[in-house]
Amino acid sequence: MNEFTLDLNLTARMPSRKDWRIGTIGSGAIVRGCHQVAYRNAGFNSYAIASRDRSKAEEVAAEFNIPTVHNSWQELIKDKDIEILDIAVPPNRQLEIVREAVKENDHIRGILCQKPLAMNLEEANEIVLLCEQAGVKLAVNSNMRYDQSIRALKTLLENNYFGEIVLATIDMRAIPHWQDFLKEYDRLEMLNMGIHHIDTFRYLFGDPEKVTAITRSDPRTNFPHIDGITQYTFQYADGLMATSLDDVWAWQGEGTQKDMYIKWRVEGTEGMALGEIGWPKFPEKGLSTLKFTTRKFPDQWIEPSWDTVWFPDAFEGTMASLLCAVEEDRLPEINGRDNLRTMATIDALYLSIKEERTVKLTETLQTLK
Predict the structure, then answer these.
(1) Which CATH architecture has domain 21-143+315-333?
(2) Is this prediction's pTM over 0.90?
């Protein structure tokens, strides 16, 4: 029996310099529980932080030994010692910050934005153009691309372990924390949670030819929204179908049992792979899993293992990719220009819901500049 020895490319390639001075805007749970933990583990240089609430920024600075706390993000971006900007604020605020960050601030070499990049494709496009015109490297924190099971699956696909891919599915039964700022928006699930799955399908299989989406409201979410529980399908020119069911009403409350998970499955003509994402267990250490069967290794299941997790370890990869891109003067792996195609796919899915039809991706891509 042959031994499986393929390097699954789980570990992000690190920059040659780890002392790039990073300035973080935001002090919320994602910064405290993921960004700063990952940067500390990787040995990156968190140099400064600012937040709407200075006291919270000071708490994060104390916990992670960040030497500089600024009174505002406006003050932070003018700090000439900062080379990398890490923006971790709601999506409707990112454009304003990027506009100011690229104005006569030659010290800023790279920007990492949260996903979604903006509330709509038009604003996302403006962010990308602003950074391109200023010569600033722009990366988007689409961190599910660095989940260990997804990273391993990508490597197996690139090495043709499963032949022609026929069907890919994601089944999510988990309850995201809908932050207060989301109450201002009508786009909910696909833009803020499903975006992980939408971007992951693109990462694994490329752009779909057309998409279809259906939705219903989430009974537990008491503010207006277009999409709560959603199901959407990507169709590719070669016949591949990729579909996700995102159930954000996965527990009925006290008196009932929980069954939370995110599972995925990919089937090809020469084999298949299936796995589970560990994120629903966060903040506990929930390992993602993968097992696969292939004619390359007949009549067996192969189950690689690792000891890192999506939250927070994947956040090493998103920042490392940006730092490497700055050093090597190239696009980051998860760059803004590529992310526009994820945003265009999301716009196509909302158009599908609105008009109750299948939408070709070219209908939204044509608006890009």
Answers:
(1) 3-Layer(aba) Sandwich (3.40)
(2) yes
